[in-house]
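Q: I have three molecules that I believe assemble together. Could you output structure tokens for the complex as a whole instead of separate predictions?
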Amino acid sequence: MIPEFGFGIAILSFLVAIYSIVAAIYGATKKSPSMVESARRGMLLTFPLLTLSAAVLIYLLVNNHFEVAFVYDVTSRSMPTYLKVTAWWGGQAGSLLFWSWLLSAFASAVTLRKWDRDVEFLPWVVVICSVTLVFFLGMVVFYENPFTRYWLVNGNVEPHMFQPALATLFTPGDGNGLNPLLRHPGMIIHPPMLYLGFVSYVIPYAFAMAALITGRTDDRWIRLTRRWSLWAWLFLSAGLVLGGRWAYDVLGWGGYWGWDPVEIAAFMPWLTGTAFLHSVMIQEKRGLLKHWNMVLVIMTYELVIFGTFLTRSGVLSSVHAFANSPIGPLFMGYVSATLIGSIALVIYRWPTLRGETEMKSMLSREALFLLNNLLFISVLVICFVGVIFPLVSELLTGQKVTVGPPFYERATAPIFASLMFLMGVAPLSAWGNSTVKTLGRAMWKSAVLAGIVTVALFFTFTRNYIALAGFFLVALVLSVTLQEFWRGVRARQRAQNESFFTSLVRLMGRNRRRYGGYIIHISMMLMAIGILGIELFQTETQGTLAAGESTKIAEYNLVFKDVASWDNNDLEVNFTRATIQVYKGDQYIIDLHPRKDMYFSGQPMSIPGVYSNLQDDLYILLVDWQPISSTAATFKIFVNPLVNWLWLGSVLFLLGIIFTAWPDRDPAEETSRRSVTRNANQPSAAD
Amino acid sequence: MTEEKTNEKKGMPIMTQVFIWVFVVGLLVLVAFGLRRAQNPMVVVGKPIPDFNLVFYEGYEYNGQKEVKLSDLQGKVVLVNVWASWCKPCEQEAPDLQAAWELLKDSGDVVFVGVDYVDTPAGASEYLTKFNITFPNAPDLKSNISSILNRQMGVPETYIIDRKGILQQIQIGPFTSTEEIVFIIQSIQ
Amino acid sequence: MKKFLYAFAFVFIFSTFFTGLALAQSNVVTDDEVNAIAHKLYCPVCQNTPLDVCPTDACHDWREQIRGMIAEGKTEDEILQYFVDQFGDRVLSAPPVSTKFNWIIYILPPIIILAGAIILFRSLREWTTPKTIEAGLGADGSESSASQDDYVARLEEELKKQK
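A: Yes, here they are, computed for all three components at once.
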């Protein structure tokens, strides 16, 4: 009875969401506040309903109800309880329910706000959120039901939701268990982070559509959703960063980002989201680019749906079951319908989306932001073409192709370099107007400093001019950005007679978006150092060592001591662990233990032995080993220079976003700032 | 992006609209067809199979020929078995396939062909020797055959085609016994 | 693009220089030589896994095959071509330019980006026509020459407001 209950609740919330759509449209068109209120309550009701449905699923997962097909697929008796709970999003059916649950939570949160003068948006926001919810719940209810159970029908085991005639329930003794690769902490948090990011972008889209439908296309919708898009960006960024860390720790190829279509699917909405983050500022400050912001928010939403589709549908991986699944066509249909609808609305409202003021200089900050948008969209174009090309190639020529890292790296590297350069210039340019002269005056010190750093690196570290160009840009941006902090603090100190530290804290606290943005820029540069290091200077070697033998890589001496293998029956895994002594020159540093876990299910997993420091990572993988008699083992050894700057930068990056997105304590301050920024002549310093 | 200098509120020029719609709809159609192609195998039970070429391994031939087209085999019941030397379930069914072939080959009415899906020559010849496979075998050059049969090939897969060249059965995964194979072939004959 | 080829060549030389290990003997093909080629190939049976890091038995066999081919004196290009002939273009990490169709992927993104740049540039020029200065915003023309003094003055003014 329990699975039927969970399923019934899911159907109920599906119906409630449909009711909300109908009631909201009726209420909005017939100007009936009570119908709109009813729609809003319907929207609010989906959250407790889906929470209950999800609770049922978690109950089934935790209590080993293997008669439920989804539970059988993703859990096993040996898994600890917390993993059983997180197995909720470990498979397709569960993750679609998870998506729906998150969406209902966010939609409820947004409908609970005080609407006051924005009440005309409300019904349409409810409609857009509910339509999205109905789509995802519809798939849960009709096609990917996590509550389906196994039944014995005429001696065959078949999955059905309800008991077929003359069938008895079939309960397998144990489940398949979650893929061990997915048991890494990064992988447990990574999908929910991505989903949180994906789902939060539904809210800005809903407001954008509401603005288009009602014709209230001023920047109100942007102000209302500004924080939503920041949080969405935070979650998406966290998801990407955690995914990278997971790949580095678990996938055993010494890298963090493989330009895999599934990774790119999550990266694409991040690109449009980042472009959006910058271009909304132009609309807020200058009233320009209204249509462009609409286009960006629509693209982000469609890419979110498309990304969920790519990552979840298995269209890109060889999953047999998918061949006959209706999920693909459904997603395609939904993306097409919403895309066409949104574009039609934008075209319909085109005249009201015209800019209020005009641009005065090609070097003004808004012009540079536009250039930034062009660059982000360029990366998006490259990614999209790369992801789609194999499909198209197979369609038109019958030939399967792979689009891998060499393509993406070559195509995007110059664009990323240009973006870095922009990060060095844009903070110095003013809203409204800048000239080469003013920019040059503001920049020359930083440029000279970066030049000195580059020359120093040329003589001490590397003659690789790609790397030198990269480090020049890093030094330039760091210097420009830190100088911005310095100038702000100095100015404040002079005015307020405060200590340096107090000044810094107050300055940043008062201009959180501006200085949060700078922190993010700095973190990007730290990440760039790491990426330049691992991409351009990674060394690797592979070789077989007998016990006691040693090998050398970069400045490390490695002595292979022994390798041991044992079974752990509780975890259903065979561990093989090698011991390697690491010396730097003659100086002993540490013992490393690269491991190979062979799960009884046949899934292998390599756990690298890693020695990390700010200079580099020594990353050792156990590739192969001989039986005990000969005690020889094969290792793959990477030295990844500077890679820890990437992780350091990632942490700072997330902190920077949190700093920027954190809700303001004092709403009065918020309004006063807004009234100030309304002024088109607002200088850049006040942001 | 077609800002006029007048302050008049003007709609988007019609040509721009046409261009946008053609681009968007074209893109969607292209992706939709690409997905459909990626999702659906090109062969369906009850329909003819597109033709492909078989270039046999050293030591194998069909009627003295080193190379045949699938269409050359029309008039006979054809069993196409796709395998690989790294595939464990394939090893399980290989003796059954060979035994079934020995039972059926003298009728002159049945052809078995093995297609070796992405493999190493050394592995393939070891496998063929180990199981004493006597029916002709060919590598899946450039993955041309597997991309016709099933782009998401998971070996072993077996395709049984009747005398008219119509696909009659697809077996995903290994056969369990010699009798099963013989029974299926005979039910088609 | 040439810069990158150069960079790759550089990294290659750099890495072989540092990895000339004790393992290397004159007539034995080292794992590093095998991996250098395997890295440019994708596993034909797994999704998106380069051959040098693919853990499956099948990939192990292919790596051994590469080792054999190197020992026979085959060049890298010959080995790559062999894999393409056997398994198709998908074993390469990027679409080869050997077919006309594959040119699309190299040409299309630059065309779209260029088109975007042209649209952006033209719009910018329209927006920055001198006419806008007549619009009575002359005051901020002087203000926006963001010299150090202006900056400090503005900031101080801003801080007073907030006090």
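A: One point stands out. The helical segments of chain B are 14-39, 88-104, 121-130, 144-149, 178-188.
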